[in-house]
Write a structure and sequence with these properties.
The complex is a heterodimer.
Chain A lengths: L8 E4 L3 H11 L5 E4 L7 H4 L7 H4 L11 E3 L15 E2 L3 E2 L7 E5 L26 H5 L9 H15 L2 E2 L14 E2 L5 H12 L5 E2 L37 H7 L3 E4 L4 E7 L2 E8 L5 E5 L3 E3 L2 H11 L18 E8 L14 E3 L15 E5 L1 H5 L2 H8 L5 H11 L3 E8 L8 E9 L5 E6 L4 H20 L4 E7 L3 E4 L29 E3 L15 H17 L1
Chain B lengths: L2 H9 L6 H10 L6 H11 L14 H6 L5 H17 L10 H13 L5 H17 L2 H4 L22
Helix pairs in contact in B: 2-5, 3-6, 5-6, 6-7
Classes of the chains: A alpha/beta, B mainly alpha.
Chain lengths: 546, 159
Amino acid sequence: MSDEAKWDVVVVGAGAGGAAAAYGLCRRGLSVLLLDAGPHFDPATDYPLTESDWETRGFPEKAGSKGKVTFAPGQKLTGQEPLLASGSRGLGPLVTNGVRFMDRYEHVRGIGGSTLHFTGEAHRLHPAAMKMKSRFGVAADWPVEYAELERYYSEAEQLIGVAGPDSQGARWRSQKFPLPQHPLSYAAQTLGKGAKALGLDWQANSRAALSQPWNGRPPCNYCGACNNGCPRADKGSADVTFIQAALATGRCTIRSDSPAIRIEANRDRVIAVLVGRADGSIERIACPNLVLACGAVETPRLLLASDGLGNESGQVGQNFMDTLFITVGALHPEPQHGRRGLPNDAICWDFNAPDAIPGVIGGCRFYNGAGENELGGLAAFALRAIPGWGRAHAQSVRRQWGHALHIGAIGEKLPNRDSRIDLDPKERDRFGMPLARIASSLAEADIARLRFMAKKSHEVLAASGAERIYETYSSWDWFSATHVFGTCRMGSDPASSVVDPFGRSHRWRNLWIADASVFPSSGGGEAPALTIHALALRTAERIQKQ
Amino acid sequence: MKRRTVMALLAALALGGGAALRRALAALGQQAPEPTMAAIADTLFPGGDGLPGASALKLHERVLAVSDLQDSIGKGIAWLDKYAASRGVDAFVALDEAGRLAAIDAAFASTDDGIRPFVFALRQYLGLAYYADPAIKKAFAYTGPPQPDGFADFQERPS
């Protein structure tokens, strides 16, 4: 037990937000202890993509790399939604009991966090999506303008080496992407023909994957396996970008396998964080400044488990927004072999603005989903795409392998009163800390947005020449969230938000949050990592100025 | 479907439990389950066109080792043997190929308690193992490991 602070700032969580915050603090001369509940991953040895059984391994699980959560009962499904119901011709329907399947919160605990297994899309938020309340009467406004975030976006893109196109419409830029865009894969080109036939703009996605050598990292070789972990380190996960840069300052100390279990506070300041050790003991670490970056599930959990620290507004854990998604797979007459190339290499932003979808507020975007969906390889294809068994099945697998096309869409998820994070009243971890409990519900507007996403996906596939839909998976009946937001909302009003526009607690003067829990709205399907980086860099700058 | 969901099924192919099943079946007076499970595996995934069937890859032995399936394997084999008896033969293994396929078809279509989930689970376990086997994958294009070479031809029509 010690009351003597050894670091200027303690950062809890070494993912997209914590890593960027640590870098931003260290480069401004502050010393940082960066903690994470999970282990180190070594790209060279932990991602065995040269092995023949690569597809059955997925992203590796190591001791402590998966946190436990519980789920509130799933939403009762009403009405028939043939375009949204999850299932495949080979596996049948995913849900048969009429209740939304609360399956999983996709995340990684470890040095690099969920960026270790992310696809690596690098998106700036649509500027209009930051003004949902004042312009459209829903969710809440961001208390920061796109124009103010722009230079932090640029800083993050430069450090990562983001590759992207010359223009992304409303997302104006002060400078070009640091690297040229990636060429489109063959499957993306096929989908692009369909999109263009419908009058849609189908362009290269901006990607945290190197199209040229950058800062000592090699360019991508288009293996398609970003979600399994990148052994080449060309993918811009936080461990090979922000954390390396933070370590290079000589002012960053990293400690893995160190879950924060409670925060101590006094008067108007937090004074220490209690951290679990592998042997079951608890260490007390004094912290002049504390930055929480555990994500929109674990950050509210830690606050609520610390006697509701920072919850003066009652908003900690509220406004939970998860991933509104759909993916549709179809068979094309010609072979595509879509696992070749970067996953999500092409994107359509045409419906991304909050008012772009007719009749419903909140945008979405479409992308080439082949890479993410074909990582299961031949076995997953054989079982999902081809129904049946026996010789007829075997012959169809031989004939159709490689003919799959996938399109995916992600859309705005608006907050509602039935979607939140709270503490499970019974389940606890090994240190006695209550587990986070996830409750998620879709409102009619979310379902309407999903219907549009499904309908447009079918249209693009058909226009691309695909002839038979073989699977649909959507968040209408399946909670499987990767992007989560909103549970410690930032705002100017202490009565309706948890942190101020710079990420600092309204009540506790040295408590900061630097992850997607501060998002007042989710955006129209943008991947959040780059925005998390930008906000964290801005928060770090503020801490130093203070 | 997320690949993690699909691949999690394969992780269920853990060792252990096969001996317990054999003991349980022996106690019931039934024969060892290997021949029947091999026949089921080959009916579901028979190979052909130069590819081996599932039993040649010994996948039925891996299924028999899945401890979670022990109870349903015994009941499932009993159901298939009963179906065979209704067709005038002693057991599922005594049916010809067309008869076995008809039995499996009937199992998938049946509303009898437990048989459809049983054959559905077998399709998952055996299918994932079968099409992930190097002996099968080598007959299909673009099934090799992603690294170290990646896909230099990713922009082009597949070769």
